[in-house]
Design a protein that fits this description.
It contains nine helices and twelve strands. It has about 290 residues and is of the alpha/beta class. The chain folds into two domains: about 210 residues, Ribonuclease Z/Hydroxyacylglutathione hydrolase-like (Metallo-beta-lactamase, Chain A), CATH 3.60.15; about 70 residues. Strand 10 and strand 11 form a beta hairpin. The radius of gyration is 19 Å and the shape is globular.
Length: about 290
């Protein structure tokens, strides 16, 4: 647990995603939820014991399973972009089997943990921008398409802290399977060039960034785009994105501990992301 500002705490040690807490006079605002049920319950217990205040809102920075699987554990009003809200409303209670299998492969969840999770349907949504005012704390929500169509930045204006979700991932492969990569590169350029304050940026995954983190992620996305778009321009089939997986896997060190299952999951996810990128490059080519 790290206190990064007087009213803001973050946890970057849970596997899956980073989570945050904003402490206000009128209650707690959570940013995303831990991926594993045991971590989510520990997180909830810590919040209750430390602050003794109710959780007023849970802001979801996107709809991806890692940050929404345990959102219902926090028992609070969900806030999300319209695209995220629309996506989650497709889940009628239980998550799809393919997503549950993903959670087993990545986090080793038990059948009991899988069966205990129910999808959250955010009650509050916005289209472009929104502001939450809780006591003296002003929290701005901004729609920034990048890792997903509904990706959201959360600016804690009174603490100069910016949660950017998976727009910035540090030290590991970013999720590409639903990305809008051109918009993502623009968002990273904006983050790099124009955001002087807030002083503290919290990524969606990985440790707090250093001065190279944004450039490193942008370089990975740019490299993946260039290589996949080259296949499209050469008229090569989508299946040939598999040839790019080994080099791009080495772009970031695989997560520790490295097991055969971990590497298999990572390479499968990367292949799915490159297939999505192939479709994106092809659509761009047809539009020109």
């Amino acid at each position: 647990m790290q206190r990064i500002a007087p009213a803001v705490h973050v946890e970057t040690g849970f596997p899956g995603v980073n989570v945050g807490v904003i402490v206000t006079e009128r209650g707690i605002v959570c940013i995303d939820a831990p991926s594993r049920p045991r971590d989510a319950h520990d997180w909830l217990d810590w919040i209750r014991k430390t602050f003794g205040r109710p959780i007023r809102y849970l802001i979801l920075t996107d709809h991806q399973i890692d940050r929404t699987f345990c959102a219902s554990v926090l028992r609070s009003r969900g806030v999300a972009h319209l695209a995220t809200q629309s996506f989650l409303q497709n889940y009628t209670g239980r998550f799809p089997t393919s997503l549950l299998e993903n959670m087993v492969a990545r986090h080793g969840l038990t059948r009991k943990e899988l069966n205990g999770a129910t999808a959250i349907h955010p009650q509050i949504s916005f289209s472009d921008r929104a502001t939450l005012q809780l006591g003296s704390h002003t929290i701005d929500l901004v729609h920034v398409p990048s890792a997903t169509a509904g990706s959201t930045w959360v600016h804690v204006r009174t603490s100069d802290v910016l949660f950017v979700g998976d727009t910035l991932v540090v030290g590991e492969h970013p999720p590409l399977a639903e990305a809008e990569t051109s918009a993502w590169l623009s968002a990273l350029a904006h983050l790099q060039q124009n955001v002087i304050a807030p002083a503290i940026i919290v990524p969606g995954r990985g440790p707090l960034p250093d001065e190279h983190s944004i450039q490193t992620l942008a370089a990975f996305i740019r490299t993946a785009r260039e290589r996949v778009c080259a296949l499209v321009q050469a008229g090569r089939p989508r299946a040939e994105t598999a040839s790019l997986v080994p080099d791009l896997t080495d772009f970031f060190p695989p997560p520790a501990p490295q097991t055969e299952g971990t590497m298999e999951w990572l390479q499968r996810q990367l292949k799915a992301g490159l297939d999505h990128l192939y479709d994106e490059c092809r659509a761009e080519a047809l539009a020109r």
